[in-house]
Specification:
Blueprint lengths: L1 H11 L1 H22 L3 H78 L3 E12 L4 E5 L12 E3 L4 E8 L4 E5 L6 E6 L5 E6 L4 E7 L9 E4 L11 E10 L5 E8 L8 E6 L9
Antiparallel strand pairs: 1-2, 1-12, 2-5, 3-4, 3-12, 4-5, 6-7, 6-9, 7-8, 8-11, 9-10, 10-11
Protein name: Cell shape-determining protein MreC
GO biological process, one term: regulation of cell shape
InterPro entries: Cell/Rod_1, Cell/Rod_MreC_2, MreC, MreC_beta-barrel_core
């Protein structure tokens, strides 16, 4: 009885049960390796686990879908922004082309007018220059004896200088466009806007121009032809500064003359319509 009791104790011990289970496991592993006995079970378990795998992978798949959608949306926004910038650039170029076409048309009209009514000129030499803040004059060596008349336009190769103010028989005083007493009808070459330029002692000013007028720094100022003293289209000055009034009702532009008055040696006397010619 004691022997049987001892055997029962051995069979019931945890170690014995572990060894039996280990043996069974090894046997099953060997049998499965040789005969694929557990393959149907594995297939069944794999099919049963597919829904669980899908549920586990669903958040990751949704994250990837959202990430791709956001990335595509950001790319579309960037492409849309670039297209808008290109459209704006194209519109600006079209506007510039329209301005250039208008300017070319005005230049062609001016050239045609010059062809119809060519200028007649004669050369006069400067004998004295009188420039200070209140008075801007030069004296030339031609007068009534050479057919010069009051108000006659005077220029050089750089641009308009002024007009004859006082006459003598063999000399003339020419008031410069920078003199505070001088006014000159002009226009902006780029836009065709016409106004009056007044001398301010050093340059010329375009006073009380409406703020809606299109004037820019660098615009070329030419004679407008109004008053019939200066032929249209002669270069006068270039806009160098623009000031808007405190109440923003008008703007004043200052333009620098093209002609350098301090180094004048000779000038051209102009007869725009061939009505007067210098005496030979």
């Amino acid at each position: 009885m004691e022997s049987l009791t001892s055997n029962q104790k051995v069979t019931k011990s945890p170690l014995f049960k572990f060894l039996i289970l280990e043996f069974i496991c090894l046997s099953l592993m060997i049998a499965d390796k040789n005969h694929q006995l557990a393959q149907p079970v594995r297939n069944t378990l794999s099919l049963a686990a597919i829904p669980l795998i899908k549920i586990i992978e669903w958040p990751q798949d949704m994250y990837q879908i959202i990430q791709v959608a956001l990335s595509r949306q950001a790319q579309l926004i960037e492409e849309n922004t670039q297209l808008k910038e290109q459209l704006i650039d194209t519109q600006l170029k079209v506007q510039q082309n329209v301005s250039l076409a208008a300017e070319n048309e005005r230049l062609r009209n001016m050239l045609n007018a010059t062809t119809v009514s060519p200028l007649t000129t004669s050369v006069a030499f400067v004998s004295n220059i009188n420039q200070h803040q209140k008075k801007q004059h030069i004296i030339i060596d031609q007068g009534t004896a050479q057919g010069i008349h009051v108000g006659q336009a005077v220029l050089n190769l750089e641009g308009v200088i002024g007009q004859v103010d006082v006459l003598g028989q063999h000399f003339s005083h020419v008031i410069l466009i920078t003199d505070t007493a001088h006014a000159l009808p002009v226009e902006i070459l780029r836009t065709g806007m016409r106004t009056i330029a007044y001398g301010n002692g050093e340059s010329i000013s375009l006073n009380e121009v409406p703020t809606s007028a299109d004037i820019q720094i660098g615009d070329v100022v030419v004679t407008s032809g109004f008053g019939n003293r200066f032929p249209r289209g002669l270069k006068v000055a270039e806009i160098e500064s623009i000031t808007v009034s405190p109440d923003r009702t008008f703007q004043t532009s200052v333009a620098k003359p093209y002609a350098h008055f301090e180094r004048l040696t000779e000038v051209f006397m102009v007869w725009p319509f061939n009505t007067n010619t210098p005496n030979e």
